[in-house]
UniProtKB/TrEMBL annotation:
Protein name: Pyridoxal 5'-phosphate synthase subunit PdxS
InterPro entries membership: Aldolase_TIM (IPR013785), PdxS/SNZ (IPR001852), PdxS/SNZ_N (IPR033755), RibuloseP-bd_barrel (IPR011060)
Protein's pathway: Cofactor biosynthesis; pyridoxal 5'-phosphate biosynthesis
Native source organism of the sequence: Streptococcus infantis ATCC 700779
Protein origin, superkingdom: Bacteria
Primary enzyme class: lyase
Annotated ranges, domain PdxS/SNZ N-terminal: 49-253
Lineage start: Bacteria, Bacillati, Bacillota, Bacilli, Lactobacillales
Function as written in the Swiss-Prot or TrEMBL entry: Catalyzes the formation of pyridoxal 5'-phosphate from ribose 5-phosphate (RBP), glyceraldehyde 3-phosphate (G3P) and ammonia. The ammonia is provided by the PdxT subunit. Can also use ribulose 5-phosphate and dihydroxyacetone phosphate as substrates, resulting from enzyme-catalyzed isomerization of RBP and G3P, respectively.
Amino acid sequence: MGAFFVIEIIVPGQIDLFYLVMQSFIPYNKTVATNTTIEEEKMTENRYELNKNLAQMLKGGVIMDVQNPEQARIAEAAGAAAVMALERIPADIRAAGGVSRMSDPKMIKEIQEAVSIPVMAKVRIGHFVEAQILEAIEIDYIDESEVLSPADDRFHVDKKEFQVPFVCGAKDLGEALRRIAEGASMIRTKGEPGTGDIVQAVRHMRMMNQEIRRIQNLREDELYVAAKELQVPVELVQYVHENGKLPVVNFAAGGVATPADAALMMQLGAEGVFVGSGIFKSGDPVKRAAAIVKAVTNYQNPQILAQISEDLGEAMVGINENEIQILMAERGK
């Protein structure tokens, strides 16, 4: 008897049922898919914990802006915990105006080769491709920085997509926790870079501390409202409530020009200090760099602070707060 075929006509009303039946024949292991997702989330979480620990290693140190290998070697010899590779330091960026972007990767690599301490570099706010480039050249830390011209006025880089730890600026608790929620491993005050005026950094650190104390004094059931107000996950607010600090290290930056400035920020609660224009715009960068490192180490000893503040040469001229035309700290909220 010959073979025969059965042909069924599927009318439009039956099409959805037909696809549903066909999908039932497609092999799908839900357990494997779920386990894969859980493993990926665990890997991301573990990587973030590692990045936070890498940032913790810089705690109690000074991070200095440098423009070339020679300056990087001066910073390393002075005892810097890390250097920030920049083609133009903040004072020059502010003076020149225009659009400021990520530094030339070739210059960054020359600095990487010149020193054995970690090297950081800046990307524009929201410019994830600049971050991809820095990760490709194996930078140690990426600073998503308001010092450079923002590339995106709404969104920051999704820092959880990267292996390398990120540093971000914040002028209050809300900004700090939002950046941490995005994956930042270190927070620094924004201050006003390139001015040599410490007032903004002091304001931001005091604001952060004041808001942390407020969160600590809330009832448990009030934390959800606080999280909504700060626009952050409630888990981060609960951490601040229980521990009285940020989940990551918090450094001071913006306007540090003298050993006294550095010690002031440490006494206000900073866990380390970034110094930009204050060193290499001063009269004696070598002595000032070493003095600022010693000030951070001995910030509670006025006798040592007095000794290391002597004969440092002229400090950078600086810009008074009332003379500032562009407030970099207002970028990237």
